[in-house]
């Protein structure tokens, strides 16, 4: 991208810091999300630095700038099994993985983004036979850690089944080391993943990654029940969010 933007003969020229922008007061500012970067003219999907509202530091995120209008901030990507998703509460809280590959953005950052403005959620899934589809929720947010990052979703549309496979509103997040689900069992331990489990619920996009030809018959896989059933482990999952009013 162009190495500097705005206020060329005024002030606020920032060379080689393309994530910085000049605000009306002439100070350099960092975009709060990928939607803002898109508005600033970044049209290439890839890794960018942002500073979410109420977050104290810069973080690196992957921005999807083409699909479905662009401006999407990645929250989760599964595609090859290269990253272990059987992780602790603290790992899911802070995020983990490779930003350009498989990763989880982190519940703290997701909480900050979704509590600062209304967000949409976009879930793009692929199976092992070349089929793919999208689930959209026109509202998505999670609660604070004291409420176990409980899920709020509404307004499902999409081609991955007649129902969305995210659990009913207010499902809390659980991890293998923290059981907050509605089951006498411990879903996160049975599923080796952190997720919003009910008892144990119709989805788990953080499940164990099974390769081709070993993707059937596992209930702890990368699952989206109302599309492929609960024992089918998907080839890829891309989950991203952007403001309802970018
Ligand atoms: Ca339980």
TrEMBL record:
GO cellular component: extracellular region
Keyword Repeat: no
UniProt-annotated location(s): Secreted
InterPro entries found in the cross-reference section: FIB_ANG-like, Fibrinogen-like_C, Fibrinogen_a/b/g_C_1, Fibrinogen_a/b/g_C_dom, Fibrinogen_CS
Keywords, in A-Z order: Coiled coil, Disulfide bond, Glycoprotein, Secreted, Signal
Domain Fibrinogen C-terminal: 25-245
Gene Ontology biological-process annotations: blood coagulation
Pfam families according to UniProt: Fibrinogen_C (PF00147)
Record bears the keyword Heme: no
Highest taxon above the source species: Eukaryota
Cited NCBIfam families: GGGWT_bact
Protein name, entry field: Fibrinogen C-terminal domain-containing protein
Protein source organism: Eptatretus burgeri
């Amino acid at each position: 991208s162009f190495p500097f933007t705005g206020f060329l003969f005024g002030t606020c020229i920032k060379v080689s810091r393309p994530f910085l922008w000049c605000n009306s007061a002439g100070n350099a500012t960092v975009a709060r999300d990928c939607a803002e970067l898109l508005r600033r003219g970044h049209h290439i999907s890839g890794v960018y630095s942002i500073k979410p509202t109420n977050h104290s530091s810069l973080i690196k995120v992957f921005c999807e700038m083409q699909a479905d209008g662009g401006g999407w901030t990645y929250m989760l990507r599964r595609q090859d099994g290269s990253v272990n998703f059987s992780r602790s509460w603290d790992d899911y809280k802070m995020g983990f993985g490779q930003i350009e590959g498989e990763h989880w953005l982190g519940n703290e950052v997701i909480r900050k983004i979704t509590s600062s403005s209304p967000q949409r959620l976009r879930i793009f899934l692929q199976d092992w036979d070349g089929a793919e589809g999208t689930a959209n929720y026109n509202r998505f947010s999670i609660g604070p850690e004291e409420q176990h990052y409980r899920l709020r979703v509404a307004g499902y549309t999409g081609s991955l089944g007649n129902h969305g496979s995210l659990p009913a509103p207010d499902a809390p997040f659980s991890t293998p080391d923290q059981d907050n689900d509605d089951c006498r069992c411990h879903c996160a331990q049975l599923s080796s993943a952190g997720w919003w489990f009910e008892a144990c619920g119709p989805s788990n996009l953080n499940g164990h990654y099974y390769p081709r030809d070993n993707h059937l018959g596992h209930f702890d896989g990368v699952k989206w029940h109302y599309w492929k059933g609960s024992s089918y482990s998907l080839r890829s999952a891309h989950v991203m969010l952007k403001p309802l009013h970018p």
